[in-house]
Write a structure and sequence with these properties.
- This protein has 2 domains: 43 residues, no CATH class; 333 residues, Spore Coat Polysaccharide Biosynthesis Protein SpsA, Chain A.
- Helix content is 31%, strand content 19%.
- It is globular.
- The protein is α+β, with helices and mostly antiparallel strands.
- Helix 1 packs across helix 2 and helix 4 crosses helix 9.
Length: 474
């Protein structure tokens, strides 16, 4: 057995690094257990882990706010001047051309489960359609279908799963016949992991035959692209532009021509959508600049005097919030992951992590006992040679599905989807029933392909929408 031949070497390396405890129960394991554990340990770089433990675990990193921190500049959602109108027209044309010649691919971060939604299964399979019950994945697939039909070029969709939900996600797509997409144009790959540390810097065992592992954060998406071969595939397919979005937002502007075009025209390596914050402490990262570089300061880290600062007209100075929607250049990802190393900083999270103690007993702590390290994709922004930020419209771009009810919930998302579809119908000339307060009194859910390309609404010409109607238009 390969693991048997290497186990002595691995144990020697672990002991030399002061992490010999990971082999504490080796003699109790069967062949399968030894293979599992040795495989996990062989993937570790003990020298790097010990450096991380010294920097992020043994001591607690302090968040420092640069003295020159300023709000990041951004393009407005709609052009205000003749010069901006000319630029936006050119951007729209450029974005369409990128799609027409097949230069854009999609990247969805979909490693989570629907636990907070009271749902068993990958979050992307959650039934979010307000009338149809269609899944989050189906919303994205419909947009892809519309783009393929409109521009005549295939679009490859990369979906990053996790070890926990990968197989269920693949099975779901097969059961749904890939929503009519070409299966060869959908590539699944799994997120990387990081071992959990005890507060003393020692790696924890989650079982006698396993380290305590957890996902390495959405920044790890970039390294996973390289390790999975997705980056090489992008080179082969000549798709230099990556549209990145998260699986819980069915309104994500995944193939927005203006966003894509401005990214291209400005020569940005990484671009972002910003949403105007509703209040100084809204739970969105803040787009800022320091030393000429764009960066994001977490909402919890921005000092109150900056968060509450106002412009002369009374508007927030630090108004630009991040909904985690990006366009990223493939070559930038390649540079950040050259040599198989991720060139992003790590973030510490103190967590309650079950672990196997010295006696071999599983301990479930009642208070934080461990440190998990995660990387965040927005930390790539200051490493880019150039960035671009475009203001977005919340009502058409951001409906996160994180909770069952309340803010950023399935409940609020469904209402936003119906409001978006009503607005599309009204713009297309349909009369939508509303009460005296302007609230819609019918529920019409548009199929995602139809919402992405409303030209298809001509086949519904003459149809009346009466109060109380609850229908799906495909």
């Amino acid at each position: 057995m390969q693991y048997s031949m290497n186990s002595c070497t691995l144990q020697t390396a672990a002991s030399a690094a002061g992490q010999g405890q990971v082999f504490r129960f080796w003699n109790e394991l069967d062949d399968a257990g030894r293979k599992k554990l040795s495989g996990q340990i062989a993937a570790l770089d003990f020298e790097e882990l010990n450096l991380l433990a010294a920097e992020y675990v043994i001591k607690r990193p302090e968040t420092t706010i640069p003295a020159d921190l300023e709000p990041a500049p951004f393009f407005p959602a709609e052009p205000r001047t003749g010069e901006e109108k000319k630029l936006y027209f050119q951007a729209d044309q450029t974005g369409e051309e990128l799609l027409r010649i097949g230069k854009v691919c999609l990247l969805t971060v979909a490693g989570g489960q629907g636990t907070r939604l009271g749902f068993e299964g990958p979050k992307g399979t959650y039934p979010i359609g307000p009338v149809s019950g269609r899944s989050l994945f189906e919303y994205f697939a419909g947009t892809v279908s519309a783009a393929v039909k409109r521009y005549g070029k295939p679009v490859t969709w990369y979906i990053m799963t996790s070890v926990v939900n990968d197989q269920d996600t693949r099975n779901f797509f097969r059961e749904k016949n890939f929503f009519g997409l070409d299966p060869e144009r959908v590539m699944f790959f799994t997120q990387g992991s990081m071992p959990a540390f005890g507060t003393d810097g020692k790696l924890l065992l989650g079982a006698k035959d396993s380290l305590s592992l957890s996902p390495n954060g959405h920044g790890g998406t970039l390294l996973a692209l390289r390790n999975s071969g997705a980056l090489d595939r992008m080179v082969r397919e000549n798709t230099p532009v990556i549209s990145y979005f998260q699986v819980d937002n069915p309104l994500a502007p995944m193939l927005n021509t203006r966003f894509l075009g401005l990214h291209e025209l400005t020569g940005a390596e990484m671009s972002a959508i910003m949403l105007p914050k509703t209040n100084p402490y809204e739970k969105l990262g803040n787009f800022c600049t320091s030393g000429g570089h764009t960066q994001i300061i977490e909402y919890s880290d921005l000092p109150a005097n900056l968060a509450e600062s106002r412009n002369p007209d009374g508007s927030l100075r630090f108004v630009a919030g991040s909904p985690a929607i990006h366009v990223i250049s493939r070559d930038f990802v390649a540079r950040l992951t050259a040599g198989g190393k991720l060139r992003l900083p790590w973030h510490r999270a103190d967590k309650k992590v079950p672990f196997i103690n010295e006696a071999g007993t599983l301990v479930k702590p009642e208070s934080p006992n461990a440190v998990k390290l995660e990387s965040f994709i927005f930390d790539a922004l200051p490493l880019a040679s150039k960035t671009m930020i475009l203001a977005g419209k919340r009502e058409t771009m951001f409906a996160p599905t994180k909770n069952q009810t309340g803010v950023d919930s399935a409940e609020s998302c469904r209402e936003m989807l119906l409001d978006r579809d009503a607005a599309i119908l009204e713009k297309a000339g349909f009369t939508f029933p509303r009460d005296k307060a302007g609230k819609r009194t019918a529920d019409i859910e548009l199929g995602p392909a139809l919402a992405a390309d409303p030209a298809g609404l001509t086949r519904f010409a003459g149809r009346k929408i009466v109060p109380g109607t609850r229908e799906v238009w495909e």
